[in-house]
Amino acid sequence: MRVTLFIPCFIDSLYPKVAMSIVQILERLGHEVDYPEGQTCCGQPPFNSGYWDEAREVAARQLEIFRDAEVVVSASGSCGAMFKKFYLELFHGRPEEEAARQLSAKTYEFSEFLVNKLGVRDVGARFEGKVTFHDGCHGLRELGTKQAPRELLRAVKGLELVEMGEAESCCGFGGMFAVKYPQISTAMAEVKCNSIVETGVDYVVSNDSSCLMQIQGYLSRHSPRVVKSLHLAEVLAQQ
Amino acid sequence: MIHLQEPQEQFQHDADRTTADEPRRAAVRKALGNYQIARGKTENAFASWQHARDAAATIKYEGVNHLDRYLREFEEKFTARGGKVFWASNSAQAREYILNLARERGVKSIVKSKAMTSEEIHLNDALEKDGYHVIESDLGEFIQQLKHEPPYHFVFPCMHLKRDEISALFERELGSAKTDSPEELTMIARRVLRQHYINADMGISGGNFIVAETGMISITENEGNARLTTALPKIHVALIGIEKIVPRLADLSLFLPMLATAGTGQQLTCYNSMYGGPRLAGEIDGPEEFHVVLLDNHRTRLLADAEQRDALHCIRCGACLNVCPIFKNIGGHAYGTTYQGPIGSVITPHYRGLQDWKHLSGASSLCGACTEACPVKIDIHHHLLQNRRNAVAEKKVWWEELIWFGFRHLMKRPWAYKLAVRLAPVGQLFHPFVYGTELDPVQSWTKTRDFPEAAPQSFHDWWRERKGARK
Fold first, then answer.
1. Whole domain around residue B271: which residue ranges?
2. Which residue pairs from B8-17 have beta carbons closer than 8 angstroms and sit at least 24 positions apart in sequence?
3. Cα–Cα 20 to 30 A to B348, which of A217, B59, B168, B188?
């Protein structure tokens, strides 16, 4: 299958290894990977801030860029939810509505794509370590992704998956929320990170790097113990 | 406590204070953790909780979208049995009606059961200013009244207080002996309250449901205080928001267990009463007069908003607060609203002004736990997004506009975006010099959290290099 990657802007610049890992996994599974180079941001930051006109201009470009793609795989559940759900609202009743609907229908969050589109659970990965999984809220509640990443992790040789208390509780990132209300965002991170540390794991894994930016940011400043954050793809790429 | 002018500044200030209070946060988290376990068990007792939610949403949709018809049906049936209905467009009208009634009937003492509508219209203040003695009979509200504090949570008014704090409060205000026993504390309040029920000549209540079909109101409670409040005094006034309508009596067979489940994790609350009118000839108890004040107070403004109308489905169970990580960390008082938590953040801008209260819609990570928990399927967290959009459409903030102007032009030009990504690692070389200080452009992040380093090579550049090498 020809898979077109949607690599959110912050992954492109801050976490390129996540995207490289996705390329590696998909190619290992025998798929052709494409990455349209004109892509930038999905427009979620202005959208979530209420600036829908600005978001629409940025989003309209993405509709064009991914128009001819067969399937689009997003490295982030949150940005994937933007393509899959929020573009429909953003372009509701506008000429681009049909294009938004088409993009929505062919967009997959990375773990959903592997498990539910390709039917793959074991990607042939090996990773030694005790791991807990954090559900990004957009992936979990907007896209309904809950089991797919866990099924993938359970198939990894050498990996022990431990559930944390209140795994579905938000890490407190929330985009601009994290800097507009830093005290609330940090308090949420504290609760989340305590749950993570209590499991005694070495790694916290998520399908959303934005959550991991928050979690790692808090852990490396405050945690009594070293817990490393990794994107699901970074784990699955290891052999 | 510092009082600031702008609700948004006050909110930021209070959130600073409450998020720093780790013991209080831990206690609230623990209490709500227990709630979630209880609720989970009770939900499982439903054949299908999800189908129950669908059915409840459908019934409330029917009621709220035909308010005109059902409210009139209620009025007709209720007045036929001797009840009086007053339609209050706003809080001033509702207050005036109740005050006038008290004056005309020579009322001296008033007892009140739990009614968030009375908090909404500041009824106690108005009555007390007029010289009436009002006492809250719900235990939590009674405690909050003694503390001169508004409810912390609209279902659990004093959930933030520990036993020793309540004991100390009773010691100070009621002269009771110090105790660590919840039963003993309840008995102290009970002794005080019993006398008030007997003395009161007006009882004020809220109402959980208005049943159109039978012209009755339904009140659910756990303490029996509402029964005493409504049955002993000679006048009963029920102050209820118009959205509490349900079309049929049979609808309560779903809503009573649902409210109990979502509200407290109980299968049913201990007391569920239906009130259909004043005492009729030949009846041995009940009030001589029964007035229902139907409160609009901007609910019709929300009704006019087709996108967010479903917020009127709310049965005030408080489930959205109980699962909300924002509520759990900042607590109820920080909101500064009658209705706290996610549903409060949705409706307060409609009731009290979007520009003054839009910050509550911004103070959310949009995690959606509220929407998932809502028994009547209100699209709560998406309404927060819509409030943000509506606030911007009404009035833009200049510096935000500037940011998004820059953002838009950067993201529309791949070359500019790529240049920015390439320059980021260079810019970050200077970051250590200002890290976490006032000069740090991302100080509100770095003050409490580490900021990731920009990668030396972006994915984009890696991809290009790889493509070049393959050719």
1. 46-297
2. B8/B356, B8/B359, B10/B336, B11/B334, B11/B335, B11/B336, B11/B359, B11/B360, B11/B363, B12/A181, B12/A183, B14/B330, B14/B333, B14/B334, B14/B336, B15/A181, B15/A183, B15/A184, B15/B330, B15/B334, B15/B363, B16/A183, B17/B334
3. B59
